[in-house]
Design brief:
Elements lengths: L24 H29 L10 H36 L1 H16 L4 H7 L4 H14 L6 H9 L11 H5 L2 H13 L17 H27 L2
Helix pairs in contact: 1-2, 1-9, 2-3, 2-5, 2-8, 2-9, 4-5
Length: 237
């Protein structure tokens, strides 16, 4: 969107309506909240750029504080993806394990793998409990949600496959397209976005407005597809 002087604001794609189903409502709230927060960061950057331009269209390279706002947009997007995915798994995995063949198979694979090396204390306690299957499901869900999403493989294995969403609905390639986003996310979170952390160089990765907007849009779109796929599976139970 441009103002009267031709200044272009940075706007995310709209999320659209929530996929049908009560079981995905909490996850959708996280996604919607993250989307609004990231748009707020981008709106703030627009104000900073407008002030820096002093009424003229700003065509130069973004100043450091402006690029930091773009980095913040990427991190808030990552946090939104984490919160949305974890809530989705916590809410939807237990019923889907009971009634979705693909989700049940992934649960069984987890148990076989855990038992192969001898049950750990937590697994042993779950097996010996008065409600072993319920406790094993809780253990499984905890394993899938205890860490943040570090890459596309995490989204595939810990979310898509756990919830029984088929490749035909959300493809592996679609998730692999998130690799640039996750690389940027990890560079910022782990290395403050410095290019070379082994030396004394203060050079940081350049983040452009268009690229950041595209990456955030892509992540939000995939998150909505995860919610929609889960909602479809829940309706089939």
């Amino acid at each position: 969107m441009a103002n009267g002087s031709g200044f272009t604001a940075v706007e995310l794609q709209t999320l659209g309506s929530k996929p049908r189903g009560d079981g995905v409502t909490p996850a959708w709230k996280y996604l919607k909240g993250a989307h609004e927060s990231v748009q707020g960061i981008l709106d703030g950057m627009t104000l900073v750029r407008r002030a820096a331009a002093r009424g003229d269209e700003y065509r130069g390279r973004l100043a450091r504080d402006q690029e930091d706002l773009l980095r913040a947009a990427l991190i808030f997007t990552s946090s939104g993806l984490d919160a949305c995915c974890k809530r989705l798994v916590r809410d939807a995995a237990p019923p889907l394990i009971q009634g979705n063949a693909d989700a049940a198979r992934k649960f069984d694979d987890f148990l076989r793998q855990e038992l192969a090396g001898g049950p750990a204390d937590e697994l042993s306690a779950a097996i010996r409990s008065q409600t072993p299957r319920e406790e094993l499901v809780k253990l499984y869900v905890a394993a899938k949600t205890k860490a943040s999403m570090q890459g596309d493989e995490d989204v595939r294995r810990r979310v898509r496959d756990t919830l029984g969403i088929p490749n035909s609905v959300l493809s592996k390639q679609r998730l692999q397209d998130l690799q640039p986003f996750f690389k940027a996310r990890n560079d910022i979170v782990h290395d403050m976005d410095y290019v070379d952390t082994s030396g004394s160089s203060a050079k940081r990765h350049t983040r452009s407005m268009d690229w950041v907007r595209e990456q955030c849009d892509q992540v939000f779109s995939v998150a909505k597809e995860l919610i929609a796929g889960t909602a479809t599976n829940l309706r089939k139970l």
